[in-house]
Amino acid sequence: MFSDALMLLPKALGETVYMVAVSMIVASAIGIPLGVLLLATGKNQVLELGIANKTLSAIVNCVRSIPFIILMVAIIPFTRLIVGSSIGTTAAIVPLIIASIPLIARLVETSLREVPYGLIEAALSMGATPYQIIRRVLLPEAMPSIVAQLTTVIIVLIGESAMAGAVGGGGLGDLAIRYGYQRFNPEVMLATVIVLIVLVQVIQFLGNMLAKKLNKK
Fold first, then answer.
1. Tens of pLDDT along 161-184?
2. PANTHER family, from UniProt (predicted)?
3. What is the pLDDT of residues 96-146, one digit of tens each?
4. How far apart are CA 96 and CA 151, in angstroms?
5. Would you say residue 149 has pLDDT above 70?
């Protein structure tokens, strides 16, 4: 039984990587611009819009406050509408994306706030538009921090994808639960934990290396 489970390990790892990669790409495509908007529309910022900023902030806070396991169950009808099923690896991607978007937005907003306001003032004094300030000042200056923050999100997604295995989401979490926990096989549990640890370490190393490379200071 242990050897059978080990044979499923590469497939489970592939499913986890698939879930995390697709979720990260889609969530970043939405979350990064949302994070920029959260900062840019804030008080005394380049696109100050008080009502819009408060509305966006409230929505982000509401979604972030929902535990992932509850969110996954709560949006089952929506998941079925999008992918046609609430079970499986592809179905698990939907709640992973929804859970990641507000997290990415807040982390990007935090990174952008670290950019010295003097740089923004200098750009404004030279007649730069809000779009130019965002594109040529805020994002380039904050990029090392943003990469480091996105690395953290990827690691969070790996943990959440393992949690998705509890409801038939596939991946390493599903393997650990079905072949390890339910069949009282601690060796399988240990093997999946080791793979997850190695995966996280590799992601963290690559993220740190890229952030360091982007940091021109």
1. 888 876 667 788 888 877 776 677
2. ABC TRANSPORTER PERMEASE, D-METHIONINE TRANSPORT SYSTEM PERMEASE PROTEIN METI-RELATED
3. 999 999 999 999 999 999 988 888 888 888 888 888 889 889 999 999 999
4. 15
5. yes
CB 60 within 8 A of CB 38: yes
């040529």: which residue's tokens?
Answer: 136
Q: Report the 10 Å Cβ neighbour count for 11.
A: 12
What are the distances in angstroms from CA 36 to CA 32, 48, 104, 110, 148? Answer: 6, 12, 10, 10, 16
What's the total number of domains in the chain?
A: 1
- CA 196 – CA 198 distance, rounded (Å): 5
Q: How far apart are CA 116 and CA 134, in angstroms?
A: 13
Tell me what the mean pLDDT of segment 76-84 comes to.
89
Which residues contact residue 177 at a Cβ distance below 8 angstroms, ignoring those fewer than 6 apart?
Answer: 165, 166
Report CA 93 to chain centroid distance, whole Å: 11
Count of H-run helices and E-run strands, the chain = 10, 0
For 140, the token pair is 């380039």
Place of tokens 């079925």: 80
Rounded CA-CA distance 164/173 in Å is 7
- Decide: 13 and 87 in contact? Cβ < 8 Å: no
Tokens of 121: 């003032």
CATH number for the domain including 12?
1.10.3720.10
